[in-house]
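user: can you give me the structure for this one chain? tokens are fine.
assistant: on it. calling the predictor now.
[tool input]
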Amino acid sequence: MKIDRHGKAKILTQEEIQLLFSEGLLTLRDRTLCAVMLYTACRVREAVTLYRKDIYDSLDRVRPELIIRKGNTKGKLATRTIPVLDDLRRYLEVYQPKPSKDGYLFPGNWGKGHLHEEYASLLFREGCRRAGIEGASTHSCRRTALTIMHRNNVPLRVIQEISGHRNLEQLQRYLEVDSDQVRGAIAMLSMLSPVPMEGENPRNEKNRLESAKKIRK
């Protein structure tokens, strides 16, 4: 969990996401920005530097895919194309910002430039405070999205294509393993349990193990 900007941004639960959107984030712009980060697993800088035309076509319809341009990615590695999920589409259809001078999806003050990433981070933290969520930052949206994919057995190579990480080692630092996954992994070892030999009574084996425990005591 992140405290005073130290540590990893927490993975958001379904309940926390609901609270954030219903009680924490006050404007449609802020909710749409958060939805972009959550449903595309992008970084806050990648979200605030999106252009309006990366999202809407000439008839103001939401495109089936959005473009995260190479020049706005960390390390400027590659352009990414992300399918627009219906949950995100609903926000983008309602948001429809007025065209600004520079053409950004999230314009800055007085329509100049784009919303600054530090200010976007502040808005998110304030939203979390109002919703009673501790230890979260804008990076929580990215970590939550990538971890959900991982927990649902999406191959790491596919997740890397979405996240834009340089290599799988960097990606794996984002992914969180929970106790249920650990228990599930251990439960798989039950297949290793010795099969009773022909003529052997499993109850006798149980009694033998209990007797051995008493002797050790």
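assistant: here you go. The first helix runs from residue 14 to 24. The first strand starts at residue 65 and ends at 68.
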